[in-house]
Specification:
Elements lengths: L1 H11 L3 H40 L4 E5 L4 E2 L4 H4 L4 E13 L12 E7 L11 E4 L6 E4 H7 L6 E4 L3 E9 L11 H4 L4 E6 H8 L4 E2 L1 E6 L3 H12 L4 E5 L11 H32 L1 H9 L4 H39 L13 H18 L1 H8 L3 H6 L8 H14 L9 H33 L1 H9 L4 H39 L4 E5 L5 H8 L4 E7 L1 E8 L5 E9 L12 H10 L2 E5 H7 L6 E6 L2 E11 L9 E4 H8 L6 E6 L5 H11 L4 E6 H44 L1 H9 L4 H36 L13 H27 L3 H7 L1
Parallel strand pairs: 4-9, 6-8, 16-20, 17-19
Antiparallel strand pairs: 1-11, 1-12, 2-10, 3-4, 3-11, 5-8, 7-8, 13-21, 13-22, 14-21, 15-16, 15-18, 17-20, 18-19
Length: 821
């Protein structure tokens, strides 16, 4: 067995250049797969970490549909034997007292007062200082912006001052803007001792919420509290780890797996190309081996060991590189998000998975050559010539099948994408011949006689060259589709947000808006309408599988603001009024896992209830992770009648920015947030802009990986034509002319791949833009910048790949090559 491994090793390194190029392709493929698996796992861990940090060890919390409630109301919680720990909290909006010229809304800060900053129900990752319950706890972005350190004093307008006792990392509870521009749209958040905040505000004995942890009697206590708080302004809910309202990252995981799959596909083709060519070259060797008594499985085992050796070396080198790439990718990825999040690279399990994949996928892609080697016929092989040409019938069948699959362009189904890509690969010999004919005069102009030879030589291994070019095209097509989707998605998001935001501004108050407040808002010359927005939050519900989730339920009113889109909107409103029922946003519906007409289990103040899901709707509110209920039923079932948000619609000629400062001045005593529709659009689309940069990097990397396949193909073509090239040299062709011929072939392969990839990408984008499943969310916008980058990168890297292969052709010895021929 040891001799078998040694023989296989000697076979694969027989041609060191081909071995090196093929191995490089495998290493890069495994590295990309490893990095994407690590990015997938680490990203999931990052959001789980912050989600669990927000929840901490709390089991339940008591909230109110008012701004605050008396501590006496929750005395039964504070004294219950079932409660093991409590956290009392009070939120109050205030303003930093600063020496600069920042506006009132830029200085806005939400102070959360808690009775124990070091509680296990509150996880704060401390960078500097201590949680001593004596001073302020501020996030590092606020410390950097205000230039504050532990022990420094922060002053608040009309409240007081306090020293900073701790600086902490990003946490959802204290999420704050990192610059003054961001402070225009979002308030700062800090933490203070509860007694200090009560002393400043005079809100003695008042609370915004209470979190508590329970023992085994927790469920019984929860049910008794629901009965106790029934018909009051407070309610109890389980604390649920669910951040899907604030994080819509499902598409990221698809991106990771798509890049990993593409890398594996291209690397697998490189392996297949090398092993298949090696098998074809060694047919006589296998025939002789079998004539001396080798069995079919022995020959196949020999090739299998060669593949395993390549895979093991690729894994040994590619996986460590992939871990480094994964770390770099995570740094780049998290930088596109609004907040400065930290991460711990989760590489152990993804590395093991990558090792298994790295060993298996070269074997899977080589199964046909392995089987083919074992099935070598002794008599037929010794009689036949070294090479066989593909039959004309095969080309015709390939072209007809490829053309037939193009009908999927007009079929609106996810399978259509795979069918179109398969069609592209099957039709590539025709495309390669077409590009060859069109660019032959240009090659002849620049390369002279070598250009004509390149165009002619390209047809000798048409299938192999076409497949190499097709792999490059598939990579470019998929990445271009992704980039086009990311470029056009902001426009789709913008349209959806404007159609379902409900107005031009959303003004949030600490206390419920009163009729007097609304009248004051309507008195503004710039305000055309002011509509209260009722939002019951947070509400706990269950998926079909019984998993607890959390979202908000908005009050829907036919005469009120438009918060969702549906073709038969009036019908939806009418159905909502008939009985207590619900409309689900698209993401909430997907997470629920049920079907329209089914019943969703929601926790209400009076206990767990089943509500009929009458439809699923498109909405920008919480990116579709929300629900809607008739206003009257929301009041009856949840006891939620107050509105903390007001939607303002402006008259023509006025802008939201003009009104923002005035609102802060007039309602500074209870205003907590002023968000414009433009702010929401910017917040929703900012991450996509950063993702586009990642797409550009991936585009170049995928083209680079495919170009390694081009170099490998050209090298194999060159080695198969050693005798032919020797004859050319004997007839007077110079080394430079031979090199130009190989470079010309590589240029044609690369150019065909780029052109085919661009055409395929445009076709896929057209199919996506016409899909009724996406309801016009993606528009047909050709990403010209990315196409230009693909063209430049594709041609440049193909030229570099062909230059590497041309060096081998230039070194062919005339005498020895003629003897071999």
């Amino acid at each position: 067995m040891l001799n078998m491994w040694r023989i296989s090793w000697l076979n694969i390194i027989q041609n060191k250049k081909r071995f090196s190029i093929s191995l490089l392709g495998i290493i890069l493929g495994i590295a990309f797969v490893t990095s994407m698996l690590i990015a997938d796992k680490t990203t999931n861990d990052v959001f789980d970490y912050y989600e669990q940090m927000y929840v901490a060890n709390a089991d339940y919390w008591v909230l109110s549909d008012e701004h605050t409630y008396s501590e006496d109301i929750v005395s039964s919680v504070l004294t219950s034997s079932a409660v093991t720990e409590t956290l009392l909290a009070l939120d109050k909006q205030a303003f930093f007292e600063l020496e600069g010229d920042q506006s009132l809304n830029q200085r806005s800060v939400r102070i959360t007062g808690v009775n124990d900053q070091d509680s296990s129900l509150l996880k704060l990752p401390v960078i500097e200082g201590s949680l001593d319950n004596e001073g302020l706890v501020i996030p590092d972005v606020v410390a950097n912006l205000l230039n504050k350190k532990v022990g420094d004093t922060i002053r608040f307008t009309n409240l007081g001052e306090a020293k900073v006792s701790a600086i902490v990392e990003y946490t959802q509870l204290l999420a704050s803007p990192s610059d003054w521009e961001g402070a225009e749209q979002k308030s700062f958040r800090i933490m203070a001792p509860l007694d200090l905040l009560r002393d400043w505000t005079g809100m003695d004995n008042e609370l915004s919420y209470v979190r508590f942890q329970t023992n085994d009697e927790g469920e019984k206590l929860f049910q008794s509290l629901q009965e106790e708080f029934l018909n009051s302004n407070v309610y109890v809910q389980p604390v649920v780890a669910d951040d899907l309202q604030s994080n819509d990252i499902g598409g990221l995981y698809t991106f990771f797996y798509l890049i990993a799959g593409l890398s594996m596909f291209i690397s697998g083709f490189i392996v297949f190309n090398m092993i298949y060519t090696s098998v074809m070259e060694r047919k006589k060797e296998f025939a002789i081996m079998k004539s001396f008594g080798y069995l079919q499985r022995s020959v196949s085992r020999l090739i299998l060991i060669e593949v395993l050796l390549l895979a093991l070396i690729g894994v040994a080198i590619g996986v460590p590189i992939g871990i480094l790439l994964g770390d770099m990718f995570m740094q780049t990825l998290l930088s596109v998000f609004e907040f400065d999040m930290v991460y711990t690279l989760n590489w152990q399990m993804p590395t093991l998975t990558a090792v298994v994949i790295g060993i298996l996928f070269p074997v899977v892609f080589s199964l046909f050559p392995i089987y083919n080697a074992g099935k070598t016929s002794v008599l037929l092989t010794l009689k036949m010539a070294d090479q066989t040409q593909s039959s004309k019938r095969g080309y015709i069948f390939r072209a007809v099948l490829g053309a037939g699959l193009l009908i999927f362009v007009f079929i609106d189904h996810p399978v259509s994408y795979l069918a179109i890509l398969a069609s592209i690969i099957l039709l590539f010999p025709l495309l390669l011949l077409g590009v060859n004919r069109i660019f032959k005069p240009i090659l002849k102009l620049f390369f002279g006689y070598s250009g004509s030879l390149a165009a002619k030589s390209l047809k000798q291994q048409l299938n192999r060259n076409a497949n190499t070019s097709a792999i490059l095209a598939v990579g470019i097509a998929v990445i271009l589709l992704l980039s086009a989707v990311i470029e056009s998605a902001p426009e789709g998001y913008e349209n959806e947000i404007r159609n379902t935001y409900g107005g031009d501004l959303r003004v949030t108050s600490e206390a419920p808006w009163s009729d007097q407040d609304r009248a004051k808002l309507l008195a503004y010359d710039s305000v055309a309408n002011a509509e209260p927005l009722t939002e019951a939050t947070p509400i706990t519900w269950e998926t079909i599988d019984g998993e607890k989730r959390q979202f908000s339920i908005f009050a829907a009113d036919k005469e009120g603001p438009t918060l969702f889109e549906r073709s038969e909107k009036d019908k939806s409103y009418n159905e909502l009024t008939k009985e207590p029922s619900i409309l689900l946003g698209e993401r909430a519906f997907d997470e629920w896992g049920g079907s329209v007409g089914g019943y969703i289990s929601i926790n209400t103040p009076s206990g767990n209830q089943q509500f009929k899901v009458i439809d699923v709707v498109k909405t920008s509110n919480y990116a579709g992770y929300t629900a809607f209920m008739d206003e009257n039923h929301l009041n009856n079932e949840f006891g939620w009648a107050n509105s903390f948000d007001m939607l303002l619609t402006l008259n023509d000629g006025y802008t939201a920015e003009q009104l923002r400062d005035q609102l802060w001045l007039d309602f500074s005593n209870h205003l907590s947030k002023v968000e414009t529709v433009e702010d929401e659009i910017k917040s929703s689309t900012s991450a996509l802009s950063g993702m586009n940069e990642l797409i550009l990097v991936m585009l170049v990397l995928i083209i680079g990986l495919a170009s390694i396949g081009t170099a490998n193909t050209l090298l194999m073509n060159t080695l198969e034509r050693t005798s032919e090239i020797g004859t050319m040299r004997a007839l007077g062709l110079t080394k430079q002319q031979v090199k130009k011929m190989i470079i010309g072939e590589g240029l044609l392969i690369g150019l065909s791949g780029v052109i085919g990839g661009i055409i395929s990408g445009v076709v896929l984008l057209y199919v996506t833009s016409q899909s009724e499943l996406l309801e016009g969310f993606i528009s047909f916008q050709i990403p010209l910048g990315n196409i230009i980058l693909a063209l430049i990168a594709g041609i440049s890297l193909s030229l570099f790949a062909s230059w590497i292969s041309s060096a081998t052709a230039g070194k062919i010895n005339i005498i020895s090559s003629l003897k071999e021929g």
